[in-house]
Write a structure and sequence with these properties.
The chain is α/β, with parallel strands linked by helices. It contains ten helices and 15 strands. The protein has an eight-stranded mixed beta sheet, covered by helices on one side. Strands 7-8-9-10-11-12-13 form a seven-stranded mixed beta sheet.
Length: 309
């Protein structure tokens, strides 16, 4: 009799778990949001919880002197770059934590190892709908292990690589993503960076890859609207990028620099000064950790992994 009662109770528990799982899967933001709410209920908060309350979130991940940016909009996802090869695992874990199962777009702005390195792991572990990368001249295609591994996994998953052109437009939910560069073939991988302007309602973001002043000049000459609330600073704050002319055209309220302490001593003081002179509030991953920019279509708010010391 007792054994029968135990079996009945176990069946009820399993049915309850199945029902809860079904309900969770039907929620607008899925299991990730539900999990974060449960954690919050028990006081186990995560600073990324803020993204669950915002229809658009742009996550500038702390991947050292490298780039990896997760964009979430209305349950859809784009990853721009994957950091260095050792970043593949932690970036994948971050995506998993955010509830990502399918990446609608993976963008490799250019094939330098600190941008393409982690992408082979990401593409291997997640379903990817579209892969975007610039058309690089044959003489600039790197012979690196990172580039080779990425091409191999693209081939294994039968995922074609598309080279977007100036003016191409993509959508992530209601987020509009415009390709602003490269406008012509550059003489370096940096100056062949894919440049993206994101528009959500009345808010805008400009992602500059590793573009240097030559590609910035092409962008300025294009006549495109460059105004943005947030500027993802090009080339980790190197002096060769983020000219005064670009900052004037963008008029950002916020800037993000993905950087770490290394022998290059980035970001450079002259870049910080140019931003400060225009009243731009600058956030660096080496100081703040991962940075979230949150938009409701009317305004942009910032949440950071670490408080400024």
């Amino acid at each position: 009799m007792e054994r029968q009662k135990s079996k009945t109770a176990l069946k009820l528990v399993l049915l309850l778990l199945l029902a809860v799982g079904t309900i969770i899967s039907l929620l607008p933001y899925g299991a990730a949001a539900f999990r974060h709410r449960i954690y919050s209920f028990f006081g186990l908060t995560d600073f990324t919880d803020a993204a669950d309350q915002s229809p658009l979130s742009v996550h500038v991940l702390d991947v050292g002197k490298a780039d990896s940016i997760l964009i979430e909009c209305e349950g859809k996802y784009m990853l721009v770059d994957g950091g260095t090869i050792d970043c593949g695992e932690p970036v994948a874990e971050y995506l998993k934590r955010r509830g990502v199962k399918t990446l609608d777009y993976v963008v490799n702005t250019h094939p330098d190892s600190d941008h393409i390195g982690g992408l082979s792991e990401i593409i291997r572990r997640f379903s990817v709908e579209h892969y975007l990368a610039p058309a690089i001249p044959l003489e600039l295609i790197p012979l690196s292990e990172e580039y080779r591994l990425t091409q191999e996994v693209l081939h294994e998953k039968r995922l074609a690589s598309s080279a977007p052109k100036f003016g191409d437009t993509y959508f992530l939910g209601k987020l509009k993503i415009q390709v602003l560069g490269p406008l012509k073939t550059g003489t370096s991988t940096n100056n062949n960076s894919i440049l993206l302007r994101l528009t959500y309602g009345n808010t805008h973001f400009l992602l500059m890859g590793d573009a240097e002043k030559e590609e910035e000049a092409d962008l300025l000459a294009s006549g495109a609207d460059l105004t943005a609330d947030v500027l993802k600073v090009g080339h980790h704050g190197s002096s060769t990028s983020t000219t005064a002319e670009l900052i004037k055209a963008v008029q950002p309220r916020y800037a993000a620099i993905s950087v770490a302490d290394d022998t290059n001593h980035l970001p450079k003081n002259d870049v910080i000064k140019r931003l400060n002179d225009k009243g731009v509030q600058t956030f660096r991953t080496d100081i703040y950790g991962t940075i979230l920019f949150l938009s409701d279509g009317h305004s942009v708010h910032v949440a950071t992994e670490k408080k400024k010391p």
